[in-house]
Amino acid sequence: MTRRIVVPILVFVAVSAIASPLLAQVQSGTGLDPNILRLTVFSTAVGAAVVWLIWRSRLPYPPTTARGLVKPLLACLGVAVVIAGLLFALAKAQGSPWRSGDLAHLGAPMGLWLLVQILGAAAEEVGWRGLVQPLLELRMRAPIAALIAGALFALGHFYVAFGVSLLSFGLFVISAIGLSLVLALFTVDRSPADRVLIATVLHFLVNMATFLLFADGDGSPRYFAGLAAVFGGCGLVALFLLARRPAVHAS
Prior knowledge:
Layout: H1 2-30, H2 43-55, H3 70-93, H4 110-137, H5 142-155, H6 166-187, H7 192-214, H8 221-243
């Protein structure tokens, strides 16, 4: 069982890592505006597609014990509102120098821009919450699986480090792990399709919150410290709640 879990994850990580710079080259070659569409976010979708093409029906998956989408989607909306409120309050306390996102100057029609943001979030979640997280759950309890998936998810955004300081990237890693823990709270025990859908919705809402509030920030440690405080705090709450669930998949 261990080999059936570890090998697909390693293939996913390797293919995603190779696809990311290749997609960045495509972006540079086509002159596509990264503010509209950043092709590197699709690297995880490429990794997941390769894994599913290789293993297909032989890929193991945890049992589905939770069903229904209304409650988790409403909960995701509520969590997104709370996160946005906390980010806004903390930014005000810091004397926030970041401007809000300008929806009137997106460089593309708003409908197209929103569609691209949703597809980008889905492309990431197909790999991390649709593949890596559930595979890890087969060998360990959900909190540990969520932490490891979150760390890999954070490091999978290595391209962020190219434009910011080491401290900023370290704070970003904390934020990404915190978000992953929150996402795991709503996706554990669900079917692959439900996991991806729920995670995509919350991921998209969080991305919209940071854009509308801060236009995605300035890359400074001060900006990322605020994100780390809010997402890290929410992640700790999610970790506590995950730890209270009975261990049914780990073996």
